[in-house]
Amino acid sequence: MDFFLDTADIAAVRMFEGAGLLDGVTTNPSLVAGAERRADFHGLVKQICDAVKKPVSAEVLASDADEMIAEAKTLAAISEHVVVKLPATADGVKTIGLCTAKGIRTNATLAFQPLQALAAAKAGAAYVSLFLGRLDDIGQDAIMLLHAIRGIYSRYGFGTKILAASIRHPLHVVRAAEAGADAATMPPTVMAKLLDHPLTKAGLDRFSADWGGRP
Length: 215
Known about the structure:
Elements: E1 2-6, H1 10-18, E2 24-26, H2 35-39, H3 41-52, E3 56-59, H4 65-76, E4 82-87, H5 90-101, E5 106-111, H6 114-123, E6 127-131, H7 132-137, H8 142-156, E7 161-165, H9 170-178, E8 183-186, H10 188-191, H11 198-211
Parallel strand pairs: 1-2, 1-8, 2-3, 3-4, 4-5, 5-6, 6-7, 7-8
């Protein structure tokens, strides 16, 4: 499973990239809501792409296909690493198809049910982002959704990667991996906890104490 960082914080991107944990980055309008970052959104995307040289999802703001494809072309021109995020709506899926025809990689975002994921895959999306935490919030079984989509994609041979999004805690990452997700995108607070376990720390403390702190 690939680990993506869900952030627009270039410092966090550089920190986790330096730790060797990153396979890519995802951003969205909420993460780029600060006035300074809004003013130079394209510059920020370029910075992130240069820092990781791996897939970086950048989202369009338009809601109709004509404006979406125009934004998609602009975003894709920033870097070869840009993956254009488009909503899993009728206009979004239409734009995914147009982008696919032009060789622009896409990420179908805000997907909450199998038919959205199936339509995105048929249109040629590189990724489909399933929002686990938001489904949990309304009492739906997000992991069952992942299993269902994994089964559909495997049955019909789709190459679209399943990206588990709206990750709230490390257990979400584990469950998504068990369900066959290709990637999980998580905020820095969750990624920082991936290798954190109290028994690991206790064991290291015990080794150090038994050794007496001597080299």
